[in-house]
Amino acid sequence: MSTESINLTMAGSRKRRAKDRLASVGVTTGGILVLVALLLIFFYLLYVVKPIFSGASLEPAASLQVPVQGTTAMLGTDEQNQLGYRFSQQGDVDFFSLDPASGHQAGSVLLHQTLADNATAVAHTSMGKPLVIYGLANGQANAIQPEFVATYPEGQKRVTQATLKYPLGEAPIVLDQDGHAITHLAYEAKSDKRVFAFATETGVQLLVQAGEENFLSGEVEWGSNYYRLPEITGNIDQLILTPGLDVLLVRVGNLLSIYNIAMPDNITLKASLQVNAQHANVTNISLLSGASSLLVANDNGVISQWFEVLKDGTRSFMSIREFQADQSVRALAPEHSRKGFATLSGDNHIELFYTTNHARLYAENLGSGKMDAIALSPRNSALLIQQEDKFHVYRVHNEHPEVGWTALWSKVWYEGYPEPQFVWQSTSASDDFEPKLSLVPLAFGTLKAAFYAMLFAVPIALAGAIYAGYFMSAGMRTFVKPTVEIMAALPTVILGFLAGLWLAPAIEENLPGIVLMLVSLPLGILLAGMGWNALPRRIKERLPEGWHALILVPVVVLIGWGCVELSPIIENHFFDGNVRGFITNDIGIRFDQRNSLVVGIAMGFAVIPTIFSIAEDAVFSVPKHLTQGSLALGATPWQTLSRVVILTASPGIFSAVMMGLGRAVGETMIVLMATGNTPIMNMSIFEGLRTLAANIAVEMPESEVGSSHYRVLFLAAFVLFVFTFIFNSVAEYIRQRLRDKYSSM
Question: pTM surpassing 0.85?
Fold first, then answer.
């Protein structure tokens, strides 16, 4: 070889080595970038999700001194936590500044007024704008509502002034017509109805005022009617009206009497309950936000939650859960718009609880000395504490109390439900709605959809892949394999659209035929194969080797057509023309048009190309010397397939199945359009479901950024991420084990 040829050969080798190194660096860099991208996604999801698991905390904001007199009946603040107010049991009201942002020095008194000189009872409404009602010694009552005036200098809201409003009129309202002193009082109202419940030395009465608009003047005219409750034994401690104006609660010691006052002329006693904890006495009862639950505080620190439960056709109050404060509970402060509450126990022990999670979020002794009263701000963002003439303001950091391990992954007993359940219901038209954010129905729906899709796809895809890779002729394979792989390019939104608008109604209309098809197709294919083997050899030899699958095309078409034609005959003969009614009424199975059967078929159709393509490549790639050697040693093609080909191709086949499972778990559009998107938990093939991916697609556009709902949707994405990671990791581990086991063949 000449020197010139040697130099050219060496130059070519250097170029190849440089290209190899460049390719190696490129592949390595690409792999690292993919891993970095996955880690960034992982940590971003954690970053968004982390705040929902942060506990509650209190931060001192201000301490101020305000000269006040008497015993506190009610504390409160405006929505911006800039002004505070205090109503005393003796009939005085004080408004004072909490924050210099109001334009007033912290602690300065903006308004002091005596509302009643002879107040003997006081009550306030439980929901909405606070309304304070004073019962007087002469049997009358005054109703007062605090109002705040805000300005917006430089675009910032500043609450600068406080006033008093008299929504029921400035003239006193006559409660007791005989002029007896009011000892206990409760009040609630709707737009066209007001109810006063009051106790005097003669018993408990109701004043019901109904409003009717005057067509001439447009003013609302109120008519009054008085009703008396049955005689109550013992000294009354509390009267509580529900905002629905249909229930009155009367507490005498530890006994709570529940009266139905929906029809005041026929007041009935619904129940009498001993609501105290064991070996304890009740100190206070309060309505939780929404007024569906009662909070019962005891002197041993136990706070129990009660609400009505439907059992055996009747609704009755039950103790649902208990919370343990560290000391005797002296005051309860329910949150204004959520299912949480604060407690004052002992002298100065403050605790925050949330009912749905059955969790204590915060507990600490604040300061020294005995505290007198507590109140949460309207937005639950501040806690106002009175200690004689000192007032302490704490910022409350408690943005996501409704989210916790219990709410996400355990059964929760929600208000109005007959028992603890897994529930996903993030929104409602009601202002009193409590979000129900269990991820269990969504995870279950994800696995259920994947299960039915794989149940449909795996047998068809693997059987087709094995036949195409081992038995099918090369000429037929060149048509079949690309055709199946082109199916993978179909947009899933098209498949979901067809499944929801065409397949679901077609299955409902021909359900007996579909069930018959599931049985008759395998039998028909088996009989067709047996019939083919029974034919004379001269007839069978006319069909080229590897083209036998063509025989099944007319068989499948004919059986499918026959089942559809027989469907109405079967339905009329066996099910009185209504198979859906038979399933629902006779069997007791709910039937949804867009159900798991539709999802299984549609999503299975989308998964088949993935499984088929990978499995067929694995089968076709089995070395020919293995199959030829097996056949040469006397094994039949079926023995060679089962004992050589499938074992050798098993790593690739398993990878194909796991890739299909990963595709099914992460599918969005098909399950979004082909199911009823109902987050229920059962394996019925005739009912719908909701998956994690579909739930994210449906609810993410309507969720408020940074809200609990928003962050839980990111948590759902994180769970889906973990699902796919686990599936892929397990698949890779098993694939490597199979590869190591059968690579020596």
Answer: yes
